[in-house]
Design goal:
This protein has 86 residues and is mainly α. The protein has a domain of 51 residues. The protein is built from 4 helices and 2 strands. Strands 1-2 form a two-stranded antiparallel sheet. α2 packs antiparallel against α3. The termini are far apart.
Length: 86
Amino acid sequence: MTSRPGTHGADKLDAAERKLLPDSDFGLPDRREYPMPDAAHVHAAEAYFRFCPEDRKPELARNILRKAAELGVDIKSDTIREWAEQ
């Protein structure tokens, strides 16, 4: 997977790039955590889902699925689907 210009890797954002993202690109918008501006970041959010606080998992799961649908990303985690239903 190739990086976008200005990034350190396909799923890495520097502080300036992260600051420019709209709240809607984050899995937890109020905390600006789990950025998902592209497919690589949706997959990263899926991978790091287990580190999310339990009380925030339903919101994060729904936002991962929403962003994945927007970008045409296939989410393989049944756990995320289950949390999204809560």
